[in-house]
Amino acid sequence: MKTTHIILVQLLIWFIPAQAAIIELKPGDSIQEAVNQAKDGDTLKLLPGIYQEHEIIIRKPLILIGVDFPTIDAMDKGNVLIIAAENVHIEGLRIINTGKSNLDDSAGIKFFDSINCSVVNNLLEQTFFGLHFSNSSNLTIKNNKLISKAEREFQTGNGIHLWKCKDSFIENNFIQGHRDGIYLEFVTNTESNHNMVLENKRYGLHFMFSHDNSYYKNTFKRNGAGVAVMYTRNVLMKENIFEENWGASAYGILLKDITDSEVVGNIFRKNTIGIYMEGSSRTLFQENEFNQNGWALKLMASCDQNTFEANNFIGNTFDISTNGSVVLNTLTKNYWDKYEGYDLNKDRIGDIPYRPINLFSVIVEKIPSAVILWRSFLVTLLDRMEKVIPSITPENMIDNSPKMNPYDFRTANS
After folding, report:
1. Residue limits of the Periplasmic copper-binding protein NosD beta helix domain (predicted)?
2. Which of 17, 27, 292, 374 is most buried, judging by how many CB atoms fall within 10 Å of its CB?
3. Is 413's pLDDT higher than 50?
């Protein structure tokens, strides 16, 4: 983080001309007029107070810095800042009350065709979209707080929205109450880390057609669903926390048609479904903790060549369920708290294989209302018989090397 900040400052210094001026504005002054009169590389310093203005257009390298978070109030009209330029830095502003329109995606700060820009340490409240970027690159989006109090999904846009962008950092932001916390579409080579994303209406983080990205050490809590990764390849998902994403169809992660990715060192805790995946291939799931979820993993029959290795499954109602009998994935060396085998040779590996799919999970997958029979004596009896003589559950969904004791991953997120 420090390295990123140093690089950012160095870049700003590099691009600021030696004769750059500092222009102070006070409430009542026009920000747009100051922008028009400023020269490339000048700094506009906004003193504390309220500035009622919207549709402020910036087309030159500038620095906007607020002193004690001056407020720019758009009075429910359109966008606040619209930027199409290189080397623009915005810091320390409080931006409120944009318009609410899906036609122009009204936003607190909107960038088009921009390069080497940064948005740092700003507060955005009651904006439709918070930060909106299109066709831009080399962006730094850091330490911002974005809060929407919309009650329904259609009443708000996304907190941080990137479309057709690349080579950017989204770091240490707080995002609450938007449609998607962070939305990435046609985005490449971008990192999202240390963000707190909670109580957003749809997804905490949403990938669409966005390859070669990574997100790590984020927390996704009480969103409609934690993260959705769709139609994407080569994504690193590492050391995140997916927590309390409850609801009829809520997930920690939804993986749909993704390939060649890694899900490593994450914690899935108290979600309706830890991971739901379909049409996904060649992905490694390793050193993850699945704890107290309804379903730890829903693995649809359309998935293949995925490997689940050295994960902990503890306290979940169902460890795994599926919708087919063909198994084209590998389970190995996982810890299953429901395993009842033994270890006579003391190598810490169970001597008999473990079948993580029980009969009742198959029944519930086909007849969801049957869940009311969970924990009944009849279900327990049928499940025991199925484990002895598998007839309905997929015979090849099996871990031949179950661990006798849970792993101690000791991740930074634990």
Report:
1. 156-341
2. 292
3. no
